[in-house]
Amino acid sequence: MKTRQIYYEEPYKAEIEVAVVEIQASAGGLLNNIILDQTVFFPEGGGQPGDRGEIVGKTGSAKIEYTRTINGEIVHQGKIIGALAAGDKVLAKIDWDWRYKYMKIHSAGHLVHDVLITMTNSLRPLKGSHGQKAWLEYEGTVEAGVREKLEEKVNEVLENDLPIVTKEASYDELVRECSFLPPSLPKDKPLRMIKIGEFPAMPDGGVHVKTTKEIGKILIPELVSGNGTTLVKYRVVGI
Domain ranges in the chain? Predict the structure, then answer.
């Protein structure tokens, strides 16, 4: 990877002066793929949407609509107005309101998971999405009435203002620290983990808020359990 991941080092940094490394046409030809030497833009992944924003240089700019990882590189996708070229010094600036919203939604999802797992030992994580319509899916079922109890407990724990810690981790460290590892987790590439308070750590490559109280109130509008699976839908109030 050619790009230094500033969004991990400083997740609350909204803009940075960087250099353009490469510019390509996107597969569809409508947008340009811009690679930078370092970036505050988080590329979509792990159920968390990628950042959007703008890149501004002396002779041109680009409104970034998508940030993705393509062929191992972080790619900022947008239409260039004027001229940008490799070697240009530019200002890369994210849409902070967009980023902060999804930081809170993603952190909320991990807190919902942590609390739910402490309430039952019958669930195994399958997948989840931490976008505008956020949800978690599990193998296994729970008894009726869990939704109300889960929502109450999540918000009780949230108010304790627990620290949310994310960091790089080796595969062996994840084995030691996590109660569950996805079978598809690679052993030959850099990995990361999240840990909320004293809850068990989990593998995760997202960007998160610093503490649970920063999230705000969480609602669990729907929990459907049956036929061997459980689906939990959640949202953060006000966003």
Answer: 4-94, 99-236
Nearest to 173 by CA among 157, 185, 191, 186: 191
Q: Looking at the domain that runs over 99-236, which CATH code has it been given?
A: 3.30.980.10
Q: DSSP assignment of 133-195, as one string?
A: SEEEEEES---TTHHHHHHHHHHHHHTT--BEEEEEE-HHHHHHHBS---TT--SSS-EEEEE
What does each C-alpha distance from 184 to 123, 127, 177, 180, 203 come to in angstroms?
18, 12, 17, 12, 12
What is the amino acid identity at position 223?
L
222, 192 in Cβ contact below 8 A? no
Q: Tell me the per-residue pLDDT of 92-113, one tens digit each, with 9 for 90 and over.
A: 999 999 999 999 999 999 999 9
Angle at which helices 96-119 and 146-158 cross, to 10°:
120
Q: pLDDT per residue over 115-137, tens digit each? A: 999 999 889 999 999 999 999 99
Residue length, the chain? 239
Query: Would the CA dihedral through 100, 50, 48, 132 be positive or negative?
Result: positive
Q: So what's the architecture of 4-94 in CATH?
A: Beta Barrel (2.40)
Give the pLDDT band (50/70/90) at residue 45: very high
Is the pLDDT confidence value at 199 over 90? yes
Contact 109, 131 (CB under 8 A): no
